[in-house]
Every structure is written in C-alpha cells, then in structure tokens.
Specification:
- The protein contains 9 helices and 5 strands, in the order H-H-H-E-E-E-H-H-E-H-H-E-H-H.
- It is of the alpha/beta class and 364 residues long.
- The chain has a domain of 157 residues.
- Strands 1-2-3-4-5 form a 5-stranded mixed β-sheet.
- Helix 3 packs parallel to helix 8 and helix 4 packs antiparallel against helix 5.
- The longest helix has 93 residues.
- The termini are far apart.
C-alpha cells in the first residue's frame, strides 16, 4: 500500500508539471526571460521526475524481491508441512496396518477357539468321552505335581476295582485313591432350568447324581489296611465344583461323613502340593536316619583313631627316651676316646690312674 501511495504522488506531480507546461505555452506573449525561467523550471521538474522514477523503480524492485522471498518462505513452509503430513500419514497407515494384522490374528484365534469349543461340546456330550476327558485332566495335574514314584494310574485294588489314580503315601495316612467324576448332564439340566418347578427337579437330580458318586467311591476305594481312611472325588470343572459348594451343602457334608473329599482342578493342585511336601519330609527323615548312622560310624572310627594315636605317641616317647640314652652313652664313649687319645705312655700306676673313672665310679 505504501508503494501505491508514492506512485500516486509522483503521477500527481507529473500532472501538475503538464499543466504548468500548457500554461507556459499559452502565455507565449511573455518575455523570454520568463520563458527561459520556466524552461529551467521544467528541466528541474523533469530531473525530479527522473529521480522519482528511479526511486520508484528501486522500491518496486525491492518490493518484488521481498514478495519473492515471502513467497519462497511460504512455499518452503507449505512443502515442509506437506512432507511432515505425508510422513505422519505413512506412520498412521503403518500402525493401522499392524493393528489390522493383530485383529486378523485375533479373529483367526477366535475362529480356532470356536472350533475347539464345538469339539469340546462334542466330547462332553458323550459319557465315555467325558470320562476320558476327566481322566486326562487328572493325569496332567498329577504328573505335573508329583514324581513318578508317588502315583500309579489305573491301579487295581484287592477287591478288583480299578482306581483312576492312586497316590502312594507312607503309613499314615497310606495310599489315597482319586476317582474322576463328571455329572455334566444333571448340571446342564439345572443350569438351563427356567421355572421354579424345573429348578427344584433339576436340583434333586444333580444332588442325587453327586451323592451316588460319593457313595460309590466310599464303598469301592476305601479299604482298611490297603488304602487310607479317605478318598478324593475329582470334578474336572470349576463351575460344577462352585455350584456344589454354593447351593448343595448337604452333599458336601455327606462327602465329609463318608470321608470322600470333593476337589476341583484348583483344589486338587493344592492337595497335590501338600502331598509333595509330605513325601519330601519323609525322604528327609529317611536321609536323616542314614546320616545319623554314618555319624555314629564316624565317631567309632574317630575313637579308634584316637587310641591308635595314643599308642603311637607312647612309642614315640619311648623312642625319644631310648635316643636320649643312646646320646648319653655316645657322649661317654667320645669323652673316653678323647682321654685315651690324650694318654701318654708312662708308669703303670700313672696310666692306671688316668684310665680310672673319676670319684671311683664304675664305667657305665
């Protein structure tokens, strides 16, 4: 806007100059001196106009340069912004692609899980397959918690019954039998009951089914002198176990009276950990007896060694005394030899006097 104002001022000046020139021409009758002065004025005005035009051109060029610089800076900012936005868009698309891949993988897992659930339903719908399912789960829990020497699967008792699993524990308490039971049908009937009458009937059916299993285990797998005084009934479903303890306390108490402890996968694992601790304690006691016997033998050997060291010390003391006596005799012999060496031939009495022991003592 500043450049445009200056341009208008210059154009206004030019207009004034043109008017002056026209006025000067129309006044042709004036004197030449005035005409010359006017011409000089016109020349000055033309020079001023030329300078103004030069200044205007410079300002126009500066304005154009500033405008180009601003346009370049704006273009650079726009380019940088577009580049950054493109990078952000690329990163966003990359993250989106990774999330879509995760979603696809999760969808695949869900599909596989659905297929497995269908297979599990097929397995649980058959009594025989359901029993095998419970035995396999029992097998996995026992083998994961105990050493191979502490259990036996499908063990046959003296009454001909075959136990799903027998925990081999020392007396007391003795071997404990674990039998797997899965009253799924009566539980499903109870869970799907809608009316009060249907719920009462399903509850009776579920209670009777569990009580029958408790009674069978008590009669078949608790044998005096062969097994412990109690047995375990394994329910391979936490839901059935929770339903039983929440709403069928009489069934649980009947199990207590018959010494049949009902366990789920979680409580069975806790029980097996307790059994492992008992086995470890028994093993430590056995090892302690062995260590105690070995320590007793070591003490006997130490006593024998002490006697032999005492005898050896006696022998050393006797040998030391004998060595002292030998040193005494050797000293006497050396002294006597020295006297003999110093002996000079003389009268018989003198020689006898020199060889006689001092103080009239006999030579040892």
């Amino acid at each position: 806007m500043q450049v445009d104002l200056q341009t208008l001022l210059i154009l206004g000046g030019l207009g004034v100059a043109v008017v002056v020139i026209l006025f000067a021409i129309s006044a042709g009758g004036r004197a030449r001196a005035e005409q010359a002065a006017k011409l000089q004025t016109l020349a000055d005005i033309a020079q001023s106009l030329a300078q103004a035009q030069t200044t205007l051109s410079g300002r126009m060029e500066q304005a154009q340069s500033d405008t180009n610089q601003r346009l370049d800076a704006l273009s650079k900012r726009l380019g940088d912004g577009l580049t950054e936005q493109t990078e952000r868009t690329g990163q966003t698309l990359k993250v989106l692609h990774e999330r879509l891949a995760v979603i696809d993988h999760a969808q695949k897992n869900i599909t596989e899980l659905s297929q497995q659930m269908v297979s599990l339903q097929d397995i649980l719908s058959n009594k025989q397959a359901r029993g095998a399912f419970g035995e396999i789960q029992l097998n996995d829990l026992v083998t994961a918690a105990l050493p191979a020497s502490a259990y036996e699967f499908q063990s046959t008792l003296s009454n001909g019954r075959r136990a799903d699993c027998m925990l081999k524990l020392p007396n007391p308490p003795g071997s404990i039998v674990i039998d797997s039971k899965f009253p799924l049908e009566s539980y499903e009937t109870l869970r799907n009951a809608e009316t009060d009458a249907a719920k009462v009937s399903a509850s009776r059916e579920f209670s009777a089914a569990v009580l029958k299993h408790v009674k069978d285990i008590s009669e078949r797998y608790i044998l005096p002198g062969e097994t412990s005084e109690s047995a375990l009934m394994f329910l391979p479903s936490e839901a059935v176990y929770a339903e039983l303890h929440a709403n069928f306390r009489n069934v649980v108490e009947e199990g207590f009276r018959r010494r049949v402890w009902i366990v789920s996968p979680t409580t069975l694992m806790a029980t097996l950990n307790t059994v492992r601790a008992i086995l470890r304690d028994v093993h430590m006691r056995e090892q302690a007896d062995v260590i105690q016997a070995e320590v007793h033998k070591l003490l006997v050997d130490m006593s024998r060694l002490d006697d032999r060291v005492s005898k050896l010390k006696t022998h050393f003391n006797q040998a030391q005394k004998d060595i002292g006596d030998i040193e005494i005799s050797s000293g006497k012999i050396m002294r006597r030899g020295a006297r003999i060496e110093d002996l000079q031939l003389g009268d018989g009495d003198d020689a006898a006097g020199m060889l006689a022991p001092p103080d009239g003592k006999a030579a040892e």
